[in-house]
Amino acid sequence: MSFTLPEVLLPVIPSLTSLIELVEAQLSKPVDAAAAEHASFERCLRERTMAMEREVHAIVLGRLDEPTEGLVVNGVRYRPAGKAPLQVLTMAGEVSVSRTVYRARGSSDAPTVGLVDLHLRLVDGRTTLATAELLTAFLGSVTPTTASSLLAQTGTLSVSKSSLDRLAKRVHDKWEPKRASFEEQVRVDELRTEVDRLDVEQIVVSLDGVMVRMKDAPNTPGALKTDDGPHGHQEASSGVVALYGPNLARLKTTGYARMPESKKGILTEQLQGELHAAMTRYPKARVVYLADAASENWRIINALQAATRPSDFVMVNDYYHAAEHLAAGLTASGANQSIIKKWKDRLCEPGGADACVAELMRRSRMLSVKRSPARMKAVMSEVTYFNNHRDRMDYARYLRQNIPIGSGVQEAACKTYVALRHKQSGMSWGTRGGQAILTLRALWLSGRFAYAWRRIASALQVDFQLDTSRRRLNAAQLAA
Fold first, then answer.
1. pLDDT tens digits, residue range 168-181?
2. Which of 112, 131, 448, 467 could disulfide-link 101, Cβ–Cβ 3.0 to 4.6 Å?
3. Residue 53 in domain
4. Are 266 and 433 in contact (CB under 8 A)?
5. Which domain covers residue 33, as residue numbers?
6. Residue 136 within a domain
7. Which of 416, 420, 422, 423 is nearest to 444 (CA)?
8. Is residue 25 part of a domain?
9. How many domains does the chain have?
């Protein structure tokens, strides 16, 4: 059917007339009065514009309900089963559409589908893809409660916290099974949009963990801490691959975050894929592995090193953690703040780690003479720390070669990716819901959400075809 826009829209969109009247009334007021009442006008303009959008949506969506004898969805034949309303959530709010529904042939109580639903690939059976993208972006930034409140204040959408929770999990269920493939495709999409290749001198890889309260974590009554951390908690993790240019200018940071998992296997896989892509793109860049002294971090780093084998690499124990250990040992020996600062500076000079170990040993012997076994034990604990990690503490050389010595980017990732969202008051998490949010946050904060959404939208598509035949499908056809 052919038509012109005014012939269809003007008779069926009363809000368009209302909108015009509002604007004309505002323009007819004296300037002072119009200015004084502008806030009220702006709110009314928003309401009537949204109303007009919803009426346009109702027209456009109604056209998708094409008459047909039936559908075939995923190999199953459906036949018409009457009319039923559908509440579609659009970016302008909820729109009611009356459409034909279809039920699997031979079943009187099976769920129904409609052409409007299938054409639009509605998420959760009610939300348009554009609206789902908007809501999902919110979920990567704020809690569902905050998102619901902010959206309501804009006058755009009224959507409940529970609906937002379900949406996040729905997106997660489409992303996670194809995660590795999607991540690779996102990298490719991102590279295609880069106009110029970055001047990358160093690729810095770092990771760490952060404790989050889990719904299914051991929760021993009266216990304050288990072997793995505070009771009721388990360790989530995050990792980053950061690109540095001349003079330690950070050009780009890509991060990942995972809920507690065995051996941090998926995080390791993600970092390996990201590192391999960066090394392929920038083959002359030095690879820097940077982390605190936690043995799990270096187990994973060693696995990454073995898998990617960069020709130029260096391993760095985070300076600031080392300085904290040095300060703890000196404090236990009775050193004041002036002495502690002096030795922290000395740690960054040539032979600094060896000199610090020698100083701690000297102070330990003095405590032995003074018969202070507890303090001596505390000092020797820090000596052991330095002895175990001093081959990654050549800070003078690192600074001379413009190699970063602090894992501040990773500490920020732990905070922004995980802690700010998952450690709010009273929060506890299940793995599925928690990972849904962490995935969205990592994509959003890494600047990759738009690329990822293309893949998610594609995964939400349901294959179907119109059917004009009344012939039943036999068992073999249904199985196929």
1. 999 999 999 999 99
2. 112
3. yes
4. no
5. 5-62
6. no
7. 416
8. yes
9. 1
